[in-house]
């Protein structure tokens, strides 16, 4: 849900980036993507 800022921030902290909002049968959702480089960066920090 685009209004769930806590979840969005958690995903951003894990290296995901917002790409936009999509409409699903359950309502709007935030489409987020994590690149391989972002994954490697967050993995090396943990």
TrEMBL record:
Keyword annotations: Transferase
UniProt feature coiled coil, ranges: none
Domain N-acetyltransferase stretches: 1-37
PROSITE patterns linked: GNAT
Highest taxon listed in the record's lineage: Bacteria
GO MF annotations, alphabetized: acyltransferase activity, transferring groups other than amino-acyl groups
Keyword field contains Transferase: yes
Protein name in UniProt: AAC(6')-Ib family aminoglycoside 6'-N-acetyltransferase
Lineage: Bacteria, Pseudomonadati, Pseudomonadota, Gammaproteobacteria, Enterobacterales
């Amino acid at each position: 849900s685009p209004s769930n800022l806590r979840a969005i921030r958690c995903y951003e902290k894990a290296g995901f980036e917002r790409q936009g909002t999509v409409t699903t049968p359950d309502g709007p959702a935030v489409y987020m993507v994590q690149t391989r480089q972002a994954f490697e960066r967050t993995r090396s920090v943990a």
